[in-house]
């Protein structure tokens, strides 16, 4: 973590989250809007110094929380996203048009965008009428029980337990490159009893119901042994063609990191049309543009198909294409952050705008929201620039 001296600009003061909240996660700062300046963000009100302080704060703290942003314009979200991406493409990374498909975990819920800005998705839970010119909509908060191979029992749920639904970066993983940042704005937030996540080693993390959980890729890298770090730095991750279609019949491990067992993937020739040129491979370790000394372990475990690792001494490449082995390796590297002290779980308050470094953290939905109502905006823009390797992989 950088020093706790607060950084400020004309509009902002960056205040790291309390140690009780951020623990050992390396994550989290609140962006306080200074007195005397408009309290709801608008990009035209920002001075160059405000923009550079905000930009660096995200690279330093990975997740920024800005309170009381009720009334922010949807168009402000992609304008803010552009602060971190000079190669931003003017569409949501999930596509210009939203897609609903109950069998695809990426588009499982009803797909809606705001009328004022089609780069902003509407997500949440429950029935809404006459929202932003939309006569009637039923939103659905996805739950682990639909996606995990061994979901919590009814007794465990009654006891207040929940799970990490799916650790991921916002990344279609085919054709379109992921956004540098994601922004989520909480508009209607239900009041629900807290829940808890129980870890395999017995530890527990109390979370607000529906909290968004984050782990830092930098923390994940720091927990690896020197040999694992070297392996990760020398490895490229090959993702499946149209990976969310590929895994549409698959179920996840109980930690939400990867797919539980091999065998339910769809055959590649049964996927919707795809071409090799759009299939993606990314380094396993990504560079943080504002902290170039800080490697981030960034693997989208559900979508991984194979690994290629290079021996730096000889240049010899080893392909690991046994799917079970590939997933086991990736999970073992990522599993080290699965402890309460390495996770920041954001407890949503009405009006929050959370901006996170999509290429520096993994995040996950948690919680069962029952029949309560929640409404949020989400924006993550496609980029023309791929994630950068921390160290070029030969
Ligand atoms: Fe996401």
UniProtKB/TrEMBL annotation:
Keyword line: Dioxygenase, Iron, Metal-binding, Oxidoreductase
Membrane-spanning residues: none
Gene3D superfamilies assigned: Clavaminate synthase-like
UniProt keyword Phosphoprotein, yes or no: no
Pfam families associated with the record: TauD
Cofactor(s) the record lists: Fe(2+)
Record flagged with keyword Iron: yes
GO molecular function: dioxygenase activity; metal ion binding
TauD/TfdA-like domain boundaries: 40-380
Family (UniProt): Belongs to the TfdA dioxygenase family.
UniProt protein name: TauD/TfdA-like domain-containing protein
Organism: Coleophoma cylindrospora
Upper classification of the organism: Eukaryota, Fungi, Dikarya, Ascomycota, Pezizomycotina
